[in-house]
Amino acid sequence: MSEGSKIGESHKAVQEARRRRRLAAALRENLKRRKTQAKGRVEGRVEGRVAAPHDSAGIADDKSGR
Nearest 5°: CA angle at 30, between 44 and 34? Predict the structure, then answer.
């Protein structure tokens, strides 16, 4: 195996390790966000209030005109 090949493989290993760390961090943050959202939903139910559904796509207006 040539020296250049070893360096290339090492560089790929470093890149892969960085990629895995970034992915792991992103997954942890996503899990934290989802837990917070779920906790907020549960607290909303406990207090007896339910948030009104949103219509960001404007579909309700289309359906009411039929």
Answer: 15
Binning the chain into helix, strand and coil, the percentages to the nearest 5 are 75, 0, 25
Cα(first)–Cα(last) distance of the chain, in Å?
72
- Distance between CA atoms of residues 50 and 52, nearest Å: 6
Look up tokens 């360096």; give the residue.
Answer: 7
Position with higher pLDDT, 10 vs 66 = 10
In whole angstroms, give the CA distance from residue 7 to residue 23. 24
Within 13 Å, how many C-alpha atoms sit on residue 61's CB side?
A: 5
Has this prediction a pTM greater than 0.70?
no
